[in-house]
Amino acid sequence: MNRRKMMQKISAKDLYDKLQAEELQLIDVREVDEFTAGHISGAQNLPLSTLPENYRKLDKQISYHIICQKGGRSARACEFLEAKGYQVTNVEGGVEAFPGKLTI
C-alpha cells in the first residue's frame, strides 16, 4: 500500500491573500529570464533546471511555497524537495493566475 502523503497545495489567489497578512518563503522555479520578466515581490529564484545542484541552500526548518508559470514545474519541484525532506506547498495556477502586481 502506498502511504505517500498528498502534496500540499494552495491556489495563486489564496497565496495572494496570505501574502497580505504574513511573510512567506516563496521560491520561483522558472528560468532566470522568465523570473526577471516579472515575479512576485520577495520571491527567490531557484530554477527547476538547477534545483538538483542548489536545493541544499534551502533550510529544512522553513516551510516554502513553490511557484512557476502555471503549476507544472512547481509540482515537480515540490515532489523533488519533499523526497529530500523539505516542507513545501505547490502554488496551483502559478504566476499566470496570481492576481497581484508582479515586480520587474
From TrEMBL:
**What SMART domains has UniProt attached to this entry?**
RHOD
Q: Name one Pfam family in it.
A: Rhodanese
Instruction: List the signal peptide residues.
Output: none
Which InterPro entries does the record cross-reference, listed alphabetically? Answer: GlpE_sulfurtransferase, Rhodanese-like_dom, Rhodanese-like_dom_sf
Q: Which PROSITE patterns match?
A: RHODANESE_3 (PS50206)
Q: In what residue span(s) does the Rhodanese domain sit?
A: 20-104
Gene3D superfamilies per UniProt: Rhodanese-like domain (3.40.250.10)
Q: Kindly give the PANTHER family that the UniProt entry links to this protein.
A: FAD-DEPENDENT OXIDOREDUCTASE, SULFURTRANSFERASE YTWF-RELATED
What is the name listed in the Swiss-Prot or TrEMBL entry for this protein?
Answer: Rhodanese family protein
